[in-house]
Amino acid sequence: MGNPLCQTWVTAVLTACSVGPMSAYEWEILQWRRLTLDLYRAVRHAPTPRDGHALWVAGRDDMLANHPATPIPPERRLGFRADVAPYDPDLRFVVPVDVSVAAQRREVPTASDGVVPFERVGRVELPGLGELDVWWLDSYGGGMFIPLRDGSSGSVTYGGGRYLIDTVKGADLGGDTSGLVVDLNFACQPSCAYSSEWVCPLPGPGNTLSVSADVGERYIDLSQ
Question: Which of 26, 80, 136, 217 has its CA at a distance of 20 to 30 angstroms from the CA of residue 98?
């Protein structure tokens, strides 16, 4: 039945904030994020990065095909499988975060969430590839965000770019400022790559690599 004191507190908070009951859609999003957290936790504890990647591919396929909060259009969900490149260990990095970078702010307008603010909090160098900005969501709860656009964007992978780390959604491969895990094999498409009903923050110039990183999720045109 739960703790009556906790129930009273929750009721008071919701009343004070004028928040109505959660919709079925909001519960679905909550469950999606729980599953994502569990999936990345399993990835971090896998025996090897390659094993973790196999778990990630299978887990995302299941969520994209079967979960009610999937961005995949209903008519394309049955049996859906993402096109994911084979794991390449040379594109996994554990790199320090340079936190001495100058402050920078991005405010990304979205249709559903208003303006989403990000603050640049660091930068990572990927040997042989280039550098990527590390962003922090400057909103309630916060979260690290590293998007990616590379030479494969617009041809093999989604033209708008992909996400490497998005801890707000649970996409976290581990590490800290002395050694952050940045594994391009886990580059995943944002929801807007699957459906125009979604609007997503996309990489800016500081998160663009000139070289091609043809690993992770490849683009599938679901309009055909």
Answer: 217
Three-state DSSP state, 83: strand
Domain-embedded: residue 13: no
* HSE, side-chain direction, 13 A CA sphere, residue 24: 2
Strand intervals (E) in the chain: 83-84, 92-95, 105-110, 114-126, 130-137, 144-148, 162-166, 175-176, 179-183, 217-218
Rounded Cα distance between 37 and 164, Å, is 15
Please check whether residue 205 is in contact with residue 144, taking contact to mean a CB–CB distance below 8 angstroms: no
212 in a domain, yes or no? yes
**Domain-embedded: residue 5:** no
- Closest residue by Cα to residue 214 from 181, 187, 182: 187
Domain coverage including residue 96:
22-218
Question: Token pair for residue 37?
Answer: 């957290």
Give the confidence band of 8 by pLDDT, cuts at 50, 70, 90. very low
Domain for residue 169, yes or no?
A: yes
Of the given ranges (2-11, 73-82, 90-99, 185-194), which has the lowest mean pLDDT? 2-11
* pLDDT at residue 109, as a whole number: 75
CA angle 11, 12, 13 (to 5 degrees): 95
